[in-house]
Amino acid sequence: MPVMAFDTPKSSMTKRVAYSPENRVLSLTFRSGGQTHHYADVPETHYHGLHSAESTGKYFHAHIRDKFKAAK
């Protein structure tokens, strides 16, 4: 299954979001520093939540940050 991704041009926090349904890995590329962080075992619903959120940053802080194991 291919990776699903979208750019977040209106977000001040993230530049790009990608999700691998096969591996359940959510990847976020941050504008500050340009680093990409990979979050393990994330349900696909969170990817769709980020995609449809009015604020990617608010959704990230409420539903993903500190809730899933992350690696750079």
What does this entry look like structurally?
This protein is of the alpha+beta class and 72 residues long. The protein is 24% helix and 32% strand. It has helices at residues 44-52, 56-63; strands spanning 4-7, 14-20, 25-30, 36-39, 70-71. It has a five-stranded antiparallel beta sheet, with helices on one face. Helix 1 (44-52) packs antiparallel against helix 2 (56-63). The chain is globular, with a radius of gyration of 11 Å. The mean pLDDT is 94.
**What is the general shape?**
globular
- In this structure, how is the largest beta sheet organized? 5 strands, antiparallel
Rg from Cα: 11 Å
What's the helical proportion of residues? 10-25%
Order of helices and strands: EEEEHHE
The fraction of residues assigned to DSSP E strands is 25-35%
Order of neighbouring strands in the sheet with most strands: 1-2-3-4-5
Q: How many strand units? A: 5
Give the averaged pLDDT, no decimals: 94
Instruction: Please give the count of helices.
Output: 2
Question: For the terminal residues, how far apart are their CA atoms?
Answer: 23 Å
Instruction: Provide the low-confidence segments as ranges.
Output: none
Write a short abstract of this structure.
By secondary structure, the protein is of the alpha+beta class. It has helices spanning 44-52, 56-63; strands spanning 4-7, 14-20, 25-30, 36-39, 70-71.
